[in-house]
Write a structure and sequence with these properties.
The complex is a heterodimer.
Chain A lengths: L40 E2 L5 E3 H26 L24 H7 L4 H18 L4 H5 L8 H21 L6 H18 L8 H7 L3 H22 L14
Helix pairs in contact in A: 2-3, 2-8, 5-6, 6-7, 6-8
Chain B lengths: L4 H10 L1 H6 L8 H9 L10 E3 L5 H4 L2 H21 L7 H11 L4 H29 L7 H23 L4 H14 L6 H9 L6 H32 L12 E2 L15
Helix pairs in contact in B: 5-7, 6-7, 7-8, 8-9, 8-11, 9-10
Classes of the chains: A mainly alpha, B mainly alpha.
C-alpha cells in the first residue's frame, strides 16, 4: 500500500479506502455498508426508447383514434335533452347518472346511510389502502399456504356474506348474491388446485392472491348492480326488460 | 438537390426565434431528443426514455393515455360551449335548446362533450382496474395509486356537476336523486345538502354552484392532480414493468449489513 503523502504528485483526495489506485485513471468503487443503510443494488438494464419522438407519437395516434371514434359517435347519436326542469313533475323512475345507478340499486335494499354514505365511503377507503398492505404486495396464491385455516375462514366469510345479503336488506338482495356466489365458486375451485394442476386455467386460479379475489368480486358487483340499475329498472324501481318498452 | 420539408423544418429549428422559444435547439441526436423532453415545461413531467416493452398495447391498453385524451376533448369542446351558455334559470335550458337547433355545430359540440364525458368516466374505471390487475400499485408507486383514486373522484364530480347544466327534466331529477344521498350523512347531512345546492332543493343557486365547480374549480384541481400523476410516474421509476423490474438485491444478502454491522 502506498502512502499518499510519500508521492508529492498524488492529491490526498485520490486516496480511496486504502485501495492502491489512481481514482482518476481507474476508478475503483468501494461500498461501505453501515448499520442503518440497506444496500439496494439495481441490476439488468433493458431496451429503452426515447420519449420524443417514439412514445409521444404513439400517444398522439392513440388519442387521435379515440377522437375519431368519439366524433363518429357524436355525429350518429344525439345527446338526450328532455323538457325543461319541472320540480312539480317527478319522472318515474327518477334515475341518477349511470355511474351512480349501482348505488341507487343498493338504496332500494338498504337505508340511505348504509347504501349512500357507508358503502361508497368504505369502497374509497379500501381502494386507497390497497398498496399499503404487504399481503397485496407479496401476492401469493390465497390457499397455497396455511390451507386448512384459510379455507375455514373463506367458508365462514362466504356463508356470512350470503346470509347477510339474504336477511339484512329489506328484501333478499339476489342481484348482489348471485355475483357473490359465482366468485365464491371460483375461489372454492382455486382452493382445490395448486401450481402443479394440469390445466392452465386451474393454475391461474390457484396463483391468485386475496386482493385479486376481493377486487374481482367488487368489479363483478359494480358491473351487475350498475347494469341492473341502468337497464332493468322501471317505474317504482320494479323489474323491466329493456327490449320491451 | 431540392430541399425537403424536413430540411426547411430543420432550418426553422435553427433560427434565433425558434431557439429562443424551445431551449433544446436543433439536432436529432439522442441527446437532443432527450433535451426536447427534459427542457420543456410540459414534457419534463415525463421521463426522457421509456422501456420498449411498455409500448406494446397489451401492457396498458393505453387506458391512461386515452383518459387524458378524453380530458383534452372535454376542455376543447367545453370552452366553446361556455360561450353559448348562461348558468341561470330558465335561460340555461333555452341556451341548450339553441345549441341543439340554432348555433352552428352546436349539436355536434354538445354531443361530443357528453359522449366524451361518459367515455372518460368509463376509461378512468377501466384504467384503475387495469393498473390493479397489473399489480402496478406496488411500492414505490403507492402514492400515485392514491392520486389516481382522487382523480377518479374528481372525474365523477366533474361528470355529476355537468349533468345538471342542461336544466332539463333528466338533469334536474338525476341531481335531485344524487343530492338526496348527501342528506343521509349522519349528524350534518342536511347542512351538507344545503351547502351543495345553495338551498333545500335543486334551484337556480344549485345551477350556479354546479356551473362554477364544473367549469372552473374542478377542472383546475383535475389538471393539477393529472400533472402530479404524470410526474410521479417518472419519479417512481417509469411505468411498472411486470417481473423484469430491475432486480433489487435485498439487504439480507449483504453479509452483516442488516444485522448489526459487525462481522461475527
Amino acid at each position: 500500500m502506498t502512502d499518499p503523502t510519500s508521492n508529492p504528485t498524488t492529491d490526498p483526495k485520490d486516496f480511496i479506502a486504502g485501495m492502491d489506485s489512481n481514482a482518476r485513471k481507474s476508478p475503483t468503487r468501494v461500498v461501505f455498508v453501515t448499520r442503518r443503510t440497506s444496500a439496494q443494488v439495481k441490476v439488468a438494464d433493458e431496451d429503452q426508447v426515447q420519449t420524443y419522438p417514439e412514445v409521444l407519437f404513439r400517444a398522439l395516434v392513440a388519442i387521435e383514434v379515440l377522437t375519431i371514434a368519439l366524433v363518429g359517435v357524436a355525429l350518429l347519436f344525439n345527446a338526450p335533452l328532455e323538457g325543461i326542469a319541472n320540480p312539480l313533475v317527478t319522472p318515474n323512475p327518477a334515475k341518477a347518472p349511470w355511474y351512480f345507478l349501482g348505488l341507487q340499486e343498493m338504496l332500494h335494499y338498504f337505508p340511505p346511510v348504509v347504501a349512500g354514505v357507508l358503502a361508497p365511503g368504505l369502497v374509497v377507503m379500501a381502494l386507497i389502502v390497497i398498496p399499503y398492505f404487504n399481503i397485496n404486495i407479496e401476492a401469493e396464491g390465497l390457499f397455497l399456504k396455511d390451507r386448512k385455516r384459510r379455507l375455514l375462514i373463506f367458508y365462514l366469510v362466504a356463508a356470512g356474506l350470503s346470509l347477510f345479503l339474504l336477511v339484512i336488506p329489506e328484501q333478499p338482495m339476489y342481484v348482489a348474491l348471485v355475483p357473490t356466489l359465482i366468485v365464491a365458486g371460483f375461489m372454492a375451485l382455486a382452493a382445490q388446485n395448486s401450481p402443479q394442476s394440469p390445466s392452465a386455467f386451474r393454475r391461474y386460479l390457484a396463483a391468485k392472491p386475496l386482493s385479486f379475489w376481493i377486487m374481482t368480486w367488487f368489479l363483478f358487483e359494480l358491473t351487475v348492480l350498475t347494469a341492473v340499475g341502468t337497464f332493468f329498472r322501471g317505474p317504482g324501481w320494479s323489474w323491466v326488460l329493456p327490449w320491451r318498452s | 438537390m431540392a430541399k425537403t420539408i424536413t430540411d426547411y423544418f430543420e432550418e426553422l429549428r435553427g433560427t434565433r426565434v425558434w431557439r429562443s422559444v424551445f431551449r433544446s435547439g436543433t439536432g436529432s441526436s439522442t441527446l437532443h431528443r432527450a433535451l426536447a423532453v427534459q427542457q420543456n415545461v410540459f414534457l419534463h413531467l415525463f421521463s426522457t426514455k421509456v422501456r420498449t416493452r411498455m409500448l406494446s398495447f397489451s401492457t396498458t391498453w393505453y387506458l391512461g393515455t386515452l383518459t387524458f385524451g378524453t380530458l383534452l376533448i372535454l376542455v376543447g369542446t367545453g370552452i366553446p360551449l361556455m360561450f353559448y351558455y348562461h348558468p341561470s334559470v330558465p335561460q340555461a335550458y333555452a341556451d341548450t335548446k339553441d345549441l341543439q337547433f340554432v348555433v352552428s355545430s352546436g349539436l355536434f359540440l354538445r354531443n361530443l362533450h357528453r359522449w366524451s364525458a361518459h367515455a372518460m368516466v368509463f376509461l378512468v374505471f377501466a384504467h384503475m382496474f387495469k393498473v390493479f390487475y397489473r399489480g402496478a400499485y406496488r411500492p414505490p408507486r403507492e402514492f400515485n395509486w392514491v392520486i389516481g383514486v382522487i382523480l377518479l373522484l374528481i372525474t365523477l364530480l366533474l361528470s355529476y356537476t355537468g349533468y345538471l347544466l342542461p336544466w332539463d327534466q333528466l338533469a334536474f331529477w338525476a341531481i335531485t336523486v344524487g343530492s338526496n344521498i348527501a342528506s343521509a350523512v349522519p349528524v350534518m347531512g342536511n347542512k351538507v345538502h344545503f351547502l351543495m345546492l345553495g338551498g333545500n332543493v335543486v334551484n337556480a343557486n344549485a345551477l350556479l354552484r354546479f356551473y362554477v365547480l364544473h367549469c372552473m374549480i374542478l377542472p383546475l384541481v383535475a389538471i393539477l392532480f393529472v400533472a402530479i400523476h404524470f410526474w410521479r410516474i417518472r419519479k417512481d421509476g417509469g411505468l411498472y414493468a411486470h417481473q423484469s423490474e430491475p432486480t433489487t438485491v435485498a439487504a439480507e444478502s449483504v453479509p452483516a449489513a442488516a444485522k448489526g454491522g459487525q462481522f461475527q
